[in-house]
Amino acid sequence: MALDFTAIDFETANSSSASACAVGLARVRDGRVVASQGWLIQPPPGHDRFFELNIGIHGIRPEDVTDAKTWTGQLTDLSDFIGDDVLVAHNAGFDMAVLRRACEVTGDAWPAARYVCSLQVARKTYDLDSYRLPLVAAAAGHLDFAHHDATADALACAQIMIDSAARAGAGDIIELAMLLGLRVPQLPTAEQGAERAAAAVAG
Question: Does pLDDT of 190 surpass 80?
């Protein structure tokens, strides 16, 4: 096995998990970043209001996404980049929620990808006062990147995982998670999600 994965980062327009306005991606093959890409997204209707708080974080404004693809329009590009890779994100619960919720509100199917959280990995790997992405990236030797630029964040996340795998002596992402005692959950399909929701109601 090789250290292959895709790091992903979303920025959102507001407090809704469905309000994706940018995505950044970094593909890793055999422990090296071989490709990165990112683009702006028109958030889904009903989730497309830009909060000043969010603008202050990432600098993306409504006029910036006017000519961007919609969530549905860009989803094929997103899925093609990810392929069958395990996804990695810093605070992965947030990014996986964006992927799932944006698809739910648009009626699109999302990839049933497995994922690992680099924040959890970092807490098992480094002794830091804070595990915010810039500080962890610095510990991994990745300095001076544009935090909250989605592509830059994805690249930083990728470097954290590469460094963490090297420190742990892990040959691939699954082995790294296993060595650190972490789960590798999978995004449920829409059908599985509906079944779980129905079971919860019935229970």
Answer: no
